[in-house]
């Protein structure tokens, strides 16, 4: 976890095993205790924001604060499932707080409507932004990064989505994959450097070169049981080598179990940077689509030769599709990325599983009609493409 990890006392937290039995099996007790002492801020109570809030509340963190300064509009009803027409005009966070709180009474759910000051933000272990423009996302990230507060910026635009994560300059993943440690039954150990370890052939070994292992119950070369962990190399189906000299450790007699020693992984995240127009392109606006394409081409041209992000040419069709749908929030995309980002929040507070490092981009271009199909369908003005009632909703 980061420097802003859950408050001390996580070891004294009691986990409701009936409520969280399946999560305990996946995350483990220690990770669940860290989750149960963590507070999460989600700014943006749109469709994506409420999906994330739902998943994080069900996961069992200590508290979730949903923040928004906007009032409910008719367009919000396309993807925000906790809002109704009766909520129009109310603050979005306040309008959905009570329904979110019903999901898990063990989680303290609050609504916030004021400015996100530094003092306010520093109360949390994770900050998620779903409606923040780039300038505001950069400001929040600048507050979070030096404090080790995990920051996630996520947006869906029509059938496009992106996720940015910054878990601070020094974040520890306690368990990269959540799998049980690999193991094997020892059949023999050679004396020398490197030492060859052979295991019984009942099961194929899953050790990888560079991993660390520990030994127990070895008879005759007892130092294997008390030393280590040892780095393995030249891993085969039933054997591997130890990067150590065992020539003075006596002769191997019998027995022994070798187990993978899972090691924490430290990640150094970078901050978010750079901005342009400040609003999404208008739907069905050829000029905005052309402008977005030109911006993408200029950005691509500015990248140094050999950069992994540099393209041979910007795909104008992709840029145009993004521009035409950028104002729409599509419920299936909000649901999908609510799950993705919810998992990133859980990773941030638990230290379990490797997080996104640091960008994720997704599109579902194949879901869109062709320009010819759109033309044949006809339609009126820009209101045709409003999220509520539009052909994508």
* N-C termini distance: 39 Å
CATH superfamily of the largest domain: NAD(P)-binding Rossmann-like Domain
Number of strands: 15
How much helical structure, as a percent, in the residues? 25-40%
Helix-strand makeup class: alpha+beta
| Coarse shape | globular
| Sequence of strands across the biggest β-sheet | 3-2-1-4-5-6-15
Average residue pLDDT: 84
User: Could you list the spans in which at least 5 consecutive residues all have pLDDT below 50?
Assistant: 2-9, 388-393
Main beta sheet: 7 strands, mixed
Number of helices: 11
The Rg value, from CA coordinates, equals 26 Å
User: Which percent band covers the strand fraction?
Assistant: 15-25%
Family: Belongs to the ubiquitin-activating E1 family.
InterPro entries: ThiF/MoeB/HesA, ThiF_NAD_FAD-bd, Ub-E1_IAD_1, Ubiquitin-activating_enz, UBQ/SUMO-activ_enz_E1-like
Pfam family, one: ThiF
GO cellular component, one term: SUMO activating enzyme complex
């Amino acid at each position: 976890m980061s420097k802003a990890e859950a408050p001390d006392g996580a070891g004294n937290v009691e986990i409701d095993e009936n409520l969280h039995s399946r999560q305990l099996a996946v995350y483990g007790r220690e990770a669940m205790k860290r989750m149960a002492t963590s507070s999460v801020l989600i700014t943006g109570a749109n469709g994506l924001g409420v999906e994330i809030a739902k998943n994080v509340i069900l996961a069992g963190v200590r508290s979730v604060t949903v923040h928004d300064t906007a009032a409910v509009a008719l367009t919000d009803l396309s993807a925000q499932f906790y809002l109704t027409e009766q909520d129009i005009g109310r603050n979005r966070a306040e309008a959905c707080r009570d329904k979110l709180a019903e999901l898990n009474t063990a989680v303290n759910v609050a609504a916030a409507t004021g400015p996100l000051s530094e003092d306010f933000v520093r109360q949390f272990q994770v900050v998620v932004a779903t409606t923040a423009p780039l300038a505001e996302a950069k400001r929040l990230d600048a507050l979070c990064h030096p404090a080790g507060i995990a920051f996630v910026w996520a947006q869906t635009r029509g059938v496009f989505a992106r996720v940015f994560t910054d878990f601070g300059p020094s974040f520890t993943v306690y368990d990269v994959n959540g799998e049980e440690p690999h193991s094997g039954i020892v059949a023999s150990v050679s004396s020398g450097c490197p030492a060859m370890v052979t295991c019984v052939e009942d099961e194929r070994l899953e050790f990888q070169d560079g991993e660390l292992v520990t030994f127990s119950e070895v008879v005759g070369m007892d130092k294997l049981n008390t030393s280590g962990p040892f780095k393995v190399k030249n891993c085969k189906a039933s054997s591997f080598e130890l990067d150590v000299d065992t020539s003075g450790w006596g002769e191997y007699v019998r027995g022994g179990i070798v187990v993978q020693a899972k090691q924490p992984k430290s990640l150094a995240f970078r901050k978010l940077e750079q901005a342009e127009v400040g609003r999404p392109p208008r739907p069905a606006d050829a000029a905005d689509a052309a402008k977005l394409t030109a911006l993408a081409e200029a950005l691509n041209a500015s990248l140094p030769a050999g950069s992994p992000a540099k393209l041979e040419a910007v795909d104008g069709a992709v840029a145009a599709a993004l521009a035409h749908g950028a104002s729409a929030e599509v419920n299936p995309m909000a649901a999908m990325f609510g799950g993705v980002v919810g998992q990133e929040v859980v990773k941030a507070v638990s230290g379990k599983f490797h997080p996104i490092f640091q960008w994720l981009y997704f599109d579902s271009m194949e879901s869109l009609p062709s320009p010819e199909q759109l033309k044949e369908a006809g339609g009126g003005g820009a209101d045709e493409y409003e999220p509520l009632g539009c052909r994508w909703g």
